[in-house]
Amino acid sequence: MFTQYKFWEPYASPYDPCPPIKVKSFSTPPQLYINFQPPGLEQFEPREALFRGTLWKVLYSPYPGPSKRGDGDE
């Protein structure tokens, strides 16, 4: 399944004085997965495209909050 968000579990040393972050995440931009722009891509309406930062829906990448990324204290 394709997802723009990747997760990993970093090593947590038993001697680290800080509480460990058990799961970290990062996002990959959608253009990494599109080799070329195929014709007929679905588009946002002009006003929505200005809000989203892109005209094409497949290239939109939201910025979720830390609690949804998996790297917050859970």
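The record above closes out task 2.4. Task 2.5 opens with a second protein, given below.
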Amino acid sequence: MAQDKKKTLKITQTGSPIRRDKTQRATLVGLGLNKMRRTVEVTDTPEVRGQVRKVHHLVSVED
């Protein structure tokens, strides 16, 4: 049986959601981020890539 190694992304919030759209704040919460310098590890999917693209100025991403 082959092992399924799913690729993950390490996302760190670097910018504040203050004075941002509600949609950008909601996107950060959807990614699991709600405080500065918080880091989460999520699976690399097209949906997550789209969320990161929407708030690219507020996060940093490592593969």
